[in-house]
């Protein structure tokens, strides 16, 4: 019978090398010098992080306007389209904020891949929102509003700043409160709440970036 230690050793040996834990948490830069994971994290954390919240703000403004002027079915369709375009709009805006998401010439940073994974996670949550909406169409602002905001939590950990926790927690609480308390205004009030949280987030991120650049 295998001992616990032997069982653990067998399990670790079964892990593919790319996934196995390693004491060498470094990669190689363009000049051939080793770059530690901490250095990558520090470089990533010095970025501006303005393009994506701007894109989110614009998208939810469009949703709010649609909710105020269109029938619920059409406004819901606008919600799906507008929020689904946030990542692409962020890539476009990044060209003007200096972030340049699609710039292939800058050194690779593993936290870029982590960030894009959180964006992909936000897109995949539509697989929860759509079936829920088939039972209750008014659930769309709630499910999309909360689930797409979860990507801010890992960002907060990576950059070691509480702005992501603030954004996710406050957004979740306010969206849920608005959905429960004002059922007749879900397609207008929830977008307004999310835009408000985005605006505060943008101010905090911009101040943080300017302090780091000083």
Automatic annotation (TrEMBL):
The keyword Manganese is assigned to this record: no
Keywords: Membrane, Signal, Transmembrane, Transmembrane helix
Leader sequence segment: 1-20
InterPro entries associated with the record: DUF7010
Annotated transmembrane regions: 49-69, 75-93, 113-134, 140-158, 165-182, 188-205
Superkingdom classification of source: Bacteria
Presence of the UniProt keyword Transmembrane in the record: yes
Name of the protein described by the UniProt record: Uncharacterized protein
Natural source organism: Ideonella lacteola
């Amino acid at each position: 019978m295998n001992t616990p230690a032997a069982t653990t050793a067998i399990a670790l040996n079964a892990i593919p090398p790319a996934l196995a834990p390693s004491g060498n948490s470094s990669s190689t830069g363009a000049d051939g010098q080793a770059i530690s994971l901490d250095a990558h994290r520090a470089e990533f954390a010095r970025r501006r992080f303005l393009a994506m919240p701007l894109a989110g703000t614009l998208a939810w403004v469009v949703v709010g306007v649609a909710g105020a002027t269109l029938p619920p079915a059409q406004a819901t369709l606008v919600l799906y389209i507008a929020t689904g375009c946030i990542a692409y709009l962020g890539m476009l805006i990044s060209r003007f904020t200096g972030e340049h998401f699609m710039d292939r010439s800058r050194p690779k940073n593993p936290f870029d891949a982590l960030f894009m994974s959180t964006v992909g996670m936000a897109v995949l949550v539509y697989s929860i929102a759509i079936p829920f909406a088939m039972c209750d169409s008014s659930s769309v602002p709630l499910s999309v509003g909360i689930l797409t905001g979860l990507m801010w939590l890992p960002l907060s950990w990576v950059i070691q700043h509480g702005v992501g926790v603030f954004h996710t927690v406050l957004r979740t609480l306010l969206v849920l409160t608005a959905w429960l308390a004002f059922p007749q205004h879900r397609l207008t009030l929830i977008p307004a709440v999310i835009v408000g949280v985005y605006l505060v987030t943008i101010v905090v991120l911009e101040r943080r970036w300017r302090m780091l650049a000083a």
